[in-house]
Structures are given as C-alpha cells and as structure tokens.
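Quick sanity check, CU044_5270 family protein:
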Amino acid sequence: MNLDTLAKTAGDVADPTTESLLAGRRQLDQAIAGAGARVAAVRRNRRPRRWGASILAGAAAVTAALIAVPLVVATPASAESVLLAAAEGAGEQVDEAAGAEYWHVVSEVEYPETGEFPREVWLGRTADSIIIDGIPVTDDGAPGEQVRTIQPESFGGPAVFISNQQITWDELEALPTDAGELGSYLRQVAQTSGGDVDDVLWESIGELLLESPASPSLRRAAWNVAASIPDVELLGDMTDAAGRPGVAVERDQLEDNWYRELYILDPSDGTLLEAQSIDADGTVVWRTTLIEQGPADTAPEAQPPFCGPDSVSGESC
C-alpha cells in the first residue's frame, strides 16, 4: 500500500504534536543504530554516482521509517501535478549561474558504511572543478571511526553529470530547454547505459538538478520531462534531513534490481532538496541533501589528494 492509498483509507490526520515527533525521532534513532551492517553489502554493488568513483563516501544508514512521524496530509494531488508545478516554479527563478566562474554547492551526503559528512563542490565554468569532502576513514583509508578531511581535489575539468556521462558547463547551457527535445536527448543518452531507459531517465533528472548550474529554463524543461516518466508515485509531504518541508515523489525500481529512487522537492521554486536511494528493506543506502548553492568568483586552490598515486603521503586509497 502506498502513502496515497494509506491517506485515503485513514482519512484526515491531525498535525503532529511535540510528543509524537519526539517518539518518531526515537524510533528513527533506534533504526539508524542497527542498520549499518545490514546495508554495507548492498552499497558495494551500487553503480557510481556523482564523484562516487573517485572517493569513498559514507554515512550511517537510515531506514525508511518516515511513517514513524505522523503524516500531514495535504490536498490530494498526483506526482505529475507536483512535478509540473515544480517546472513552473523553477522557470520563474532568476538565473544566478549566468556569467559565474564557479557554481558553489554545499550538501550533506550519507552512505551506510561510515557516517554522514559535509560536501562542497565548486563546479568550474572553464577551470577545474574542486571538491572538499569530510569522510570518516581509518589510517589505511578504509571506513572507520577516525575522521579526516579530504583536501580540495581537482577533477580534471569543469563537469556535471547526466546518466554517468560528463558534460561541460558550455554543453549544459547548450542543452535544449524545450521539454520534448530535452526528453528525446536524455532518452538517447539513457539508451547507452544498458539499463531500463525510464529508470536511467528518472535518475538523470536528479543528476541534472541536484548540483548543476542549470538555468531556470533548463530546470523547467527537466521537471516537465520528469512529469512524463511513467510509474512515478506521490508520497506526499515530507521533511528533508535539513528539516525543510517538501513534497516527496519516487520511482520504484526494485523490480529492475535497483532501488526506490526518491526526490524531496519544493514545488514552489523547483528546488530539488534531497535525493535518496532506498532498498527493498526500506533502508536508505544513499542520500544527498542540498544545503545551499550559488555563484562564486573563486574556488580553493587544489591540493594533492589525501591518498592515491598523486598524494604527498603515498598512502593507498
């Protein structure tokens, strides 16, 4: 039973009290404590996400015990209507990335193996992109309790990701802003991945919107493309890890040996607040929460990586 059906069956639900929220939080904390070991094997089989191939990223696993906190039922709607509203909201925003040298994004990332950590990226228009991740590792670079901060690291050029393929900022700005044309292009790219085209298309939308300096017109087109993808479900009102209210939609890809891919968004301005991957047990095996983003004139100077062949330490990753 999905949350739409549950809401219709249960009827109106009262606003959550302080006591009920605390009770829900305690249940969630208990779930967090016991989930890490169970999910570690799942993460090892996960295909790389943005920057994921270059560094180990981690966080304590969070179960999808979201219904432990009472659901505030909003006016009934569909996933399509929410995504179309996000498209309109996105299109009305100011293009802050226009003319910027860097697009600076602060986020929080979570994987099961190590612990949630802050992440900052400076996506360069013409210069190399820079990243800072604070990742829990041991002395040998394996996941553990000792926390070290990864120094700024170059990625060899300006790039964002679509369907695990790098494109430059110039190429991003050249993407069609007509939803039909953008959808056709993204589907062509998705067909090269070897996976289900609709699955990859849904994830491409998240990759295109979560950290990239996409213009308002491109964001509007992307959300319109998302609204055309089949089998997307509306989960309803949901709070992201930063405590911000949003609306959750997801595409269940478990039958394709993948995950439930969930987005929490703000339909009023088209901001993608958070993306999650959830396994068949309801465990969050990956999460990225957008904290802030905006233009920047400069980025930190790239330093040698913490480990690997180009590091000063010479330690293996």
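Posting the structure with no commentary besides this: The mean pLDDT is 76.
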